[in-house]
Write a structure and sequence with these properties.
Number of helices: 3
Structural class: mainly alpha
Radius of gyration: 16 Å
Length: 70
């Protein structure tokens, strides 16, 4: 499992998927009634924004140091 998190792109992909799901849930549960909200008025904008923010959030955490062989 630790090898999985060493690759930066896996962390970004997992964060993006989680963020997309949360962005969609935000639109579904809270959303924007008036339709004048820039991000949450349409489901796909909220999902893309959530994916972007989730990827950025998980990218902030550093990868564990790799053990050197030898």
């Amino acid at each position: 499992m630790h090898k999985f998190w060493r690759n930066r792109w896996y962390k970004i992909a997992v964060g993006s998927l989680l963020g997309a799901g949360l962005g969609y849930l935000y639109w579904l549960e809270i959303g924007c009634i008036s339709g004048s909200c820039g991000i949450t008025s349409v489901w796909w904008r909220s999902t893309i924004y959530g994916a972007f923010m989730g990827g950025l959030l998980l990218d902030l955490f550093p990868s564990p140091p790799q053990k050197s062989k030898g």
